[in-house]
Amino acid sequence: MEPEQPAQRFGAHPAALTASAPGRVNLIGEHTDYTGGLVLPMAIPFQTNVEIAHAADGMYTFHSAQFQESRVMPPSDQSPAAGNWSDYSVGVLRELQALGVRPEPFYLTVDGNVPLGSGLSSSASIEVATAMALLQHTGKHLPIPEIALLCQRAENVYVHSPCGIMDQFAITAATAGHALLLNTRDLTYQLLPMNTGELAGCVVVVVNSMVRHTVTAGSEYAQRRRELEAGQQVLRERFGVRDLGEATVEQLLACAGAMSAESLKRCRHVITENGRVREAAEAMTAGDAKRLGELMTAAHASERDDFECSVEEVDFLVDTAVQQAGCFGARLTGGGFGGCTVNLLLAGEADRFTAAIRQAYQERYGITAQTFVCEAAAGAVERAATAGSDVTAGTDVAAGRADQL
Ligand code: GLA
Asked: What's residue 29's pLDDT?
């Protein structure tokens, strides 16, 4: 049977709207985004594209161009997560419905090139692109933080993944040429130029280890989060801090006897990591590549030893990277248990660096690593503005409270 063409389903409304969202790489600030901490990610030039058109069949259809698969449902659908790509989009729909939005029937196609399951936020990219497309489709507007929070809720509630806010926020709000320093307690943020001083001569290189400990990644993340929150609770009770974002190592050590050894290590990672993010932002502002790189490498040691979210292959990539000429620093990026490293290096060394890393990794593990030299890309809102769409959340902040939808 011939595959059905989207145009056949669009019926009398063939015009399609599009929205696009990037992936992200986190420069520093890992596992700090669910206890009121700081993160410093940037958007990367991969993208999820979502096309949406009115459907004449009265249904909501989600179609993946990559998987050549569709999920079709009536507007009243209440089915649970299907365990595939569609859940991120359906979760966003559900959250919009929870706000009282009732989209007209649609045919929505998801396509893109964000590497899947690699710690570069392919899922948040689908969520944000879907949210932008559904908002256009319904003529509704939301400000940046509300879009990001809605997408995070979609992942927490529908997909049952207990992620923080970093990915959805960075993908929504990032600006080309900048990293985004986000305070995850109150969602205030600052855009830091990536080309100050020595940084003008540097590039960010992402290396994909191609390993993903999928069996443990989800459950280990949740486990780490529980251990961290248990430690945070002790600090709250003892010192009245709001969250780990304002706790100190001295306070933590004073409570050492009142929490598990795991909680102590997880909290130590997060408290010291918040300090490193602060310093990294200063280094970036001063254009000090050497200091920024040192902080990234120190962050990796803390992820490896205290948060225990690294794996052997990733440690090998980091150790190999920091021995290369022109490499200022390297670390595991994203949730961990496999995935990618992020490396800061002199632009002129990028080709030699990627060749050396790939060769060493191939020889050691027999795996071909993927490498990407990444510019800081535009977030979904900037892309929408550039494309002339009216879904420019930034211009609509005052009008766009979720409770006014
Ligand atoms: C994943 C989550 C984020 C964040 C990172 C770790 O990417 O989605 O919210 O917790 O892990 O920093």
From this structure: 98
**How far is residue 34's CA from residue 28's CA, in Å, rounded to a whole number?**
15
Q: Please work out whether the CB of residue 37 comes within 6 Å of at least one atom of ligand 1.
A: no
Just list the catalytic residues.
167
Nearest-atom number in ligand 1 for the CA of 221 is 11
Dump pLDDT digits (tens) for 47-61: 999 999 999 999 999
CA of 185 to the centre of ligand 1 (A): 15
Q: Exposed e or buried b for every residue in 69-105, given b needs 16+ CB within 10 A?
A: ebbeeeeeeeeeeeeebbbbbbbbbbbbeeeebebeb
Say yes or no: CB of residue 227 within 6 Å of ligand 1: no
Q: For residue 177, what are the CA distances in angstroms to 41, 229, 323?
A: 12, 34, 27
Give the β-pairing of 38-54 and 16-28.
antiparallel
Question: What domains lie within the chain, and their CATH numbers?
Answer: 12-191+379-397 (3.30.230.10), 195-374 (3.30.70.890)
pLDDT per position as a tens digit, 106-118: 999 999 999 988 8
Alpha helices in 162-257, H assignment, sequence order: 166-173, 214-239, 249-254
Cβ(159) – ligand 1 distance below 6 Å: no
Q: What is the pTM of this model?
A: 0.93
